[in-house]
Design goal:
heterodimer, A: 501 residues, alpha/beta, eleven-stranded mixed β-sheet, 11 strands, 12% strand, globular, B: 95 residues, mainly alpha, Histone, subunit A, two-stranded antiparallel sheet, 2 strands, 4% strand
Amino acid sequence: MPDVERRVPRLMINASLTELRAALDAKDVSSVELATLFLDRIERLNPALNAFITVDRDGALAAARAADARIAAGTGGPLTGIPLAHKDVFCTEGVLTTCGSKMLSNFVSPYDAHVVELLKQAGAVSLGKTNMDEFAMGSSNENSHYGAVKNPWDTSRVPGGSSGGSAAAVAARLAPIATGTDTGGSVRQPAALCGITGIKPTYGTVSRYGMIAYASSLDQGGALGTSAADCAALLTAMAGFDPRDSTSLERPAEDYSRELTVPAQPRPLAGLRIGLPQEFFGPGMADDVRAAVDAALDEYRKLGATTVDVSLPNAQLAIPAYYVIAPAEASSNLSRFDGVRYGHRAAEYRDLAEMYAKSRAEGFGAEVKRRILVGTYVLSHGYYDAYYLQAQKLRRLIAQDFQAALRGCDVIAGPTSPTTAWAIGEKSDDPVQMYLSDIYTIAVNLAGLPGLSHPCGFGAGNLPVGLQLVGDYFSEARLLNVAHRFQQASDWHLRRPAVAA
Amino acid sequence: MSLSIEQVQRIAALARIELAAGDAEATRDKLNGIFGLIEQMQAVDTSGVEPMSHPQDVAQRLRTDVATEPDRRDEFQRIAPQTQAGLYLVPKVLE
């Protein structure tokens, strides 16, 4: 065991942000010691998990020294000195930013994403950049140019995607918290498959500036942690208006932890109406997932909540509509990768057209190319109305379904993913099967609503199951509080894979 | 719907992605599978439904017409594949 893990209490690895904050403020541990503890864990455990693409030891230690100075001077905030990891979709000035692609294998970003800037200002210490499906396109993390991430609960299985590196890093305690992005479930689904908590806020809450674009009308930054309380603290620091993102919402800053401080009561959720969409409890859900979700709903009833049946009649259209809208926007967004200003350029070409075509053929992986081709087709002359416009109309119907359902309940609950983590390689050659694994998460992105996944039990093979909560626009604080009350009364979120036990 | 090899090559050309002749068939089969999934959309009558392009009904913000970005040409060109005298170099377009 490395020296620092002997000196710094092992408890620190599994500590909550509240406990880390208290230890830092009491000078029981320094930020440099904390960063070293996690950096050493990454060095020791990452080769087996592949959760990180880049580890920035020097940058982390410099940030930790600065954080220690702020803490000593009494000018720190809630996240000052707390280590975290950034999904490699976020641009980090001076640090390699690959987005999981060969196309950006040499891209050292000249600027910070807004999220990165905010977390730096908060004094958080970035340990490095986490692995992800190339350009955030995937549900298993197998689409990374840098190799698949392994699920810490069973390294023969996928961690989910596309924020699989962030989810695996948090689950294995290679970082206390991590950033992610969610276009069709990319925060919630890997959180579920890795047994942690993840939240995607209302579209427009977190700035997309410096977050490498996949599908701009769906992409939204989010937070991953072991508990709702940790996610609330991270999201509070990540969110905020940014004039450089044209879809950033001008709203007053929110403290997403504000409802969490109310003392625990026997029935803290009395009066809460949880809507159960019949479409999310159909035959597509695996038996072990159903058992864990049903048991969690019983627990919610014990906490005072009532459950009501609701309906999302167009839910089954979410996947087809998404696989028109997202590829269409991707085909446009990814046209910027042309081998001229940054990124990969082919070694040999005869003319400009061939330079573009070869650079893009070499730089993009198979799934990214497929989505660009689908998007190019659905936007091409003569097909626009039948595909893109039709998908946008379905998007309206799906969003209206949620509004109708939320008139009869306060939050919607269901499984996050129809199955637990599957074996690496099981679906990697079958895009359609892979797409269907996001059946419960995609509709939430189309509507632009906030969604959260929290651990709610284990299925066959001791693999984690996640429960998804969906609320109305701007109900993040409520979603986090609902999950927090569940976590106060249960210990699923405290279970750790052997690697972090 | 079923795409022909020629259609797949045409889409790839529009997308500026070189598609080797040997890969065209496998690509077509995967795309046809994806379009099989997408085609479910066509069964729904959406007449009279307003298309939704964005989750929030907000108007585009306007800003004052002033420069807000500093000149960082050198830093941005340092990461480019090929530059010369402050310009990005590409193969000759006009003879």
